[in-house]
Write a structure and sequence with these properties.
Distance between the termini: 32 Å
Largest sheet: 9 strands, antiparallel
Structural class: mainly beta
Number of domains: 1
Helix content: under 10%
Length: about 160
């Protein structure tokens, strides 16, 4: 069904609502001024000098200042055995909310440091996230985990603000 709206300005939309390639900033917080869909490439860097990947895939939708970013990454070979717990390359810089933005692990396999559960959080004013894990049912969270071993795979989802 086509969206049709006729206002006093005479706007008539029958084939979707177009947005310009570059966002047009407006001062009214209730005006939708940006919509974008695209892909991005997740990477790991700090502890891994030269990992090779079986696959790296990311997809995002940005509506206004909210970003929904999904990614799937699978390491073929770590090469240095490093302990990197960061993922890089998110499509937009996370705003400085004063709080880290939590993420969701939808799927994981063959991670090098087995935990009961994994989570991630985006860093303020950055395009990377940290991976954390719960050690056991005591509730203790481990921030220094070695997850990126050979053949490790992780699928993550983050919703955050720019």
């Amino acid at each position: 069904m086509a969206l049709t709206k006729v206002s006093s300005a005479g706007l008539n939309i029958n084939a979707g609502l177009p947005f310009p390639a570059t966002a047009v900033a407006v001062t009214d917080a209730n005006t939708l001024d940006d919509y974008e869909e695209g892909t991005w490439t997740p990477t790991i860097q700090d502890g891994a000098s030269s990992p090779t990947y079986t696959h790296q895939f990311g997809k995002y939708t940005k509506i206004g200042n909210m970003v929904m970013a999904f990614c799937s990454i699978r390491i073929n070979a770590q090469n240095d055995g490093g302990a990197d717990k960061k993922m890089y390359g998110f499509p937009f810089t996370n705003s400085d909310t004063g709080y880290s933005i939590p993420g969701y692990f939808g799927y994981y396999s063959s991670l090098a440091d087995p935990k009961i559960t994994y989570a991630s959080y985006l860093v303020n004013n950055a395009t990377n996230c940290y991976i954390i894990g719960q050690e056991d049912d005591s509730g203790t969270v481990d921030n220094a985990i070695d997850i990126w071993g050979d053949d490790a795979r992780a699928d993550l989802m983050h919703i955050y603000y720019t």
